[in-house]
Fold:
Amino acid sequence: MMNNPKKCTQKDINKIWIKKWEIVRGLSSREIFNSRLFPEAFPVIKKYIPNKFKNLLDAGGGTGKFGLKLAQEFPESFITISDILDESLSIARELAVETGIKNVWFKKDDILASAFPDNHFDVVFSDAMIQYLPDYRKAIREIRRITNPGGRIVITAVNFWNFHTLYKWLLALAGKEYQYGYEKSFSKRELTEAMEKEGIRVIATDGFYVGYGIFRLRSHHQIFRFLGRLVNRLSKILDKFTDRFFSRNFGFDIVVVGQK
Structure:
């Protein structure tokens, strides 16, 4: 499938991710929680979710690792993990059993037409989901609808200003398909404006893991493993003196935090 939103359907997206979850199935919770990106991402996400909120949704949760970790960190809260695919939800359920996490609930749901009622969740978190949806504005609209007034909305997406965008462009130039099919890269400004147009007041922006766009190419050549780690270490050193300027602006993922 070409990286073209006009040629992308939900059926296309589902086919790609069903194959992805077949590969992931069977991994232990330790392997999933210690994957290269998650330990970098979770501390950034967690700091924007106050523990006063008790009813949280991990929308399009995939393996459920973020929702499950939030459930561990906030044992007094209740976390719902939703996804459009049974294949991913079954993995999340297995992880919950393996880790003994009880304060979670799983729901098959399409964020483009969510079955959740208006003003339902204190927090709606979505990690790297809207980038695969051609009508991402509709997803943002639904996220706002199901969030309580005064509630928190946290959305992450791949960053336009990261090496990863150049990699996808080079693939397209070479006539090769990207492994996840259609995937939109967002600038912080673009995602911020999209959320604001849907009536969400943006209160913070962030980002994480500058070097991951390089590191993830290690399957092509081991030099990318070294270069990715080097770039990440250098960015973290520079972050200490620049209020995390490099991670916030050039991280693999951007984070936009809003309030309804």
Remarks:
- The chain has one domain: 5-162+177-210+251-259.
- Strands lie at 55-58, 78-83, 104-108, 121-127, 147-158, 201-208, 253-259.
- The mean pLDDT is 95.
